[in-house]
Every structure is written in C-alpha cells, then in structure tokens.
Amino acid sequence: MSPLPRSLRQAERSRVQVHEFEDAGLLDGLTGADRTARVDVLRTLVDAGESLDELVHATRGSRLAHLLLERALSPKGEYDLDDIARLSGVTDRDLRRWFRVIGRGVSTDESFYNDGDLALARALQEYRNLGLDEKAVFAAARVMGRNIWTVADAADALLQERLEAAREHPEIALRYSEEIRRLAEYQGQILAQILATNVRHRIHADAMGTEGAEFRLPDAGMMGVCFADLVGFTVLGERGTADELGRVAADLDSLASDVVDPPVRVVKTIGDAVMMVAPDADCLAGAALDLVEAARGAGLPPLRAGIAWGSAMHSSGDWFGRPVNLASRVVAVTPAHEVLVTREFFDQLDTDGFWCEPAGAHHLKGLDLPQELFAIGRRQVA
Question: Are residues 201 and 232 in the same domain?
Fold first, then answer.
C-alpha cells in the first residue's frame, strides 16, 4: 500500500490535533471564526514546542496571549545549564558569572535555555580565542548588561499600545507576535550598527593623535569641541521610566537646537549628552554657558560642560581627534552648572568677554599627565 500524499498526511495530522484540543477542553464555548482563530493560536504554540498540558495551564490562567508573545521573542528552552557549559566549552562557574554580568540570569531549571543562550556562552569562548583580557571582557559585558534594560524599556514603550490590546486576546497576540519578533530583530541590527560605528570612530580618533603626539590629517583643522551632559542622569535611568528618560533627552536636544547659533554646530546628542563644535572659541564658550543656564531655567537635571581645543577632522557627519577625546574626559570632572576648559582652549578665549579662574590639575581617564583646567563665565557688562 503506497503512503498517503504529503498534503493528505498534513490534513490528517491537523484533524487529529483539533480532536486533541477538543478533548483537552481548549475549544470549549468557541464556534465559527472564534474557534478557527483559537485553533490557529494553539497550533502556533504547539509548533513552538509547547505541550498539550502547558496549553491547558495557560488557557486556565488566561496566559495564552502572554505565551505567544514570549515565544515570538524567545524559542522554548531545550538545554539546562550543564548542557550549555558542555556544548560551549565554558566551565559552569564561568558560565554563571557570564550570564549574570550580561543580565541573562542563571536558572537550574531543566530546559530553560535555548540556542540563543548557547550562542551567548560561545561568545565568551570566542573572546578568549581572540586573546582579549578577560577582566576587560567581563567589565564591558557588565556595562552592556546594566544598560540593556533601558533599551528594553524603550522598545517596550514603542509597543505598549499593541501589547495592551494583545494581552487578553490570544488571536490579536498571534497577529502581533510576528511584528514583535521583527522589532526585536531591528533593535538588534540597530545596536550592532551603532556599536560597530562607535568603535570605528574610537579607532579613527586614536589614529588622529594622542597626548603629546598630535598631528593633522587632510581636512583637519583647529577646532573647539564641547561635551555637555546632565548630572544625575544615570540615577534617573535607574529610577525613572523609559518615557521619562526619553522626555529629558528630547528636552535637552531641543534646548541645544534653540540655544546654538552658527558658527557653533550641534554634532549629535547621545542620551544625556550634547556634542558641539566651533572654529571660534568665544562663540563655543558662549554657547556652552547659555546651554547650562537654559537647562537650569527649563527644569532639567543640572547640566555641565567640558571644552577642549585642538586639531580635529570632520568625517561622515562626526568629528575625530584629540580635542574630542579630551572634551569628553573634561566634562566627567566638571561640577554641576559649571563649564571647565583646557589650557589650550583658555589660550584662545577673549578674556575681555570671559572671566577664567584655575580649577586645578586633573588626572583624566586615558591620559598619563594631569591636565590644567579652568572654570569660565561671562563678564558682566557695565
């Protein structure tokens, strides 16, 4: 007897599956289009690896929609921690440390982890194969793990309206699950591109010169570079919502656009920070002071700014060079509501228009020698 054609086998399997759903009470009270839609939901979950018992529990607990959305973002687990350690070649102890620092969490449950988790574990092994310093690898992972929750909150805010509609309606959740999966993929692509771009920028900046070895490249020129950031934004990030953080960042971006005039230019806003450049030191100093004062009047967290001067190069919409690196270090040691500048920038300022006072020598991250800094402000017009 010849086997049934594939289409007939699939039809028979679907018929048996529907009978199983009926026998388990998963279709009770449903007729017509509602019944058909619920069968589609249940089949999707079965294909994702959920058992009939799990579907029954989820139905009784009104969790079918949640289960669909969870499976859209993460396949059902098939490995335990020992499996991940064995398959990745990472010891159990190191695996636990690694998962904790990147924010994955450690579970002793069977079949908790999936192929994505196995890839995370193998990433640690790849870092080791590259010969990277392990302490530095874990430190970098710790930073990513600490900040990924903010990214997740922002993604959740994008989907909030649809999530609310889907939570109590499995059929709607089925429709949205593919969109949510695509969003997660887009977010991953964005993060990968931004990370690669920023690392490239750092490498480019390093190539342009370091302390005591500054040199010019084509299209490079003397430029003032300013970074201004909000004091306490990290604490706000830990306590506030994604909406609150987004509002504060948007307000800062808007404020900078309103305050800054040519030849000063806003290069970019990076969360709680604004980067500005200008070939004129007086104009850049004035813009930084105006921005700090405007933030105070707008009710934003305290703003501070750090400015450096030197040879910088414009490329792909961004600026590179020693003053970029230096300004980002100066702002980190600047008190709230103040503007600190380097000696090189101080030498460019018109002291008839600005007062300057020594702010001491500071050991800045990544620089061997202490840097002499100055606090600046506008002179009062008589």
Answer: no
